[in-house]
Give the backbone structure.
Amino acid sequence: MDDTAKLILLTTTHRVAPGLLSWPAWEALRGAARVLAADPAHPQLPALRQAGVEVELVGQDSAPALARLLTEAAPAVWLGSPDGDPGLTDALARIAVEEAGKAPEIEILPGSYDLPGARLLDLVSVMDRLRSPGGCPWDAEQTHASLVKYLVEEAFELVEAIEEDDRETLREELGDVLLQVFFHSRIAEEHPEDPFTIDDVAGDIVEKLMYRHPHVFGDVEASGTAQVEANWEQLKAAEKQRESVLDGVPAGLPALAYAAKLVSRVRRAGFTGVPDEPYELPAELTPESAGALVLAVVQRAHDAGVDVDAALRAAARAYRSAVRAAEGLTTD
């Protein structure tokens, strides 16, 4: 009979509710002669004890406990800690050297897995730590108003990364924008009269997306993008109870983006009560005529399927590069 000791290293994730383990994990736990763990605060311990699985706590120095397993042929389970048990690898290596020929057979058994989006739970935890007593003083002092400038900056940096097709920066800037959403949501939890959480924010947007996509989550037919957009605007108008096709366009948008959004709303609604601005360069530019000319360009760009805001940024970057080249400087 093979009397080699067997050690099962059971790994779990703290991002899944305690007790939600795979069937092979439960079989290993119930069939083990001994279940050991180093972390007395391991999130799985209450669930295991409730299920009748006794766990022996061995402290942070795992080498002695592992050495004892060499005298047992029955399988034992080591319940991996959330921090990865930093000393475990060294302990196993030391035993392999000092107890040559007696080291246990080792099997790594994943007991639970992270689901897509699970790392967002870590961000919730980090934000809570930063805002809580003993966290970061700067983060604790921030308000919705104080963070507005950072939200705007991060959004524009994300736009730049997209337009420059810089995927490394794109990933970073997406994280920075995501942080702003979590930061504001964490601040909102502390409101004395009307608090809400990141779960409320996520729940609201899920409901909105499902409501505005009846062709996906309902029985509405949509033959193409145009019909999808029309359905979206119709549902949004009913939801917001808007009187004008322009209601809901934020006036705080940058001027060019604001004009483009207004034109887009008018075109999408098929509204013909206002004629287009004449597209011609006046003999003398005044604030009024310059504004009318830019608005005319915005209208023509929309009709041609051109994102006028992105087009102007691209032209500005090309202009900047040309100036730097004329100055004998390298472009960036």
Observations:
- The first strand starts at residue 6 and ends at 11.
- DSSP finds 14 helices and five strands in the chain.
- The radius of gyration is 30 Å.
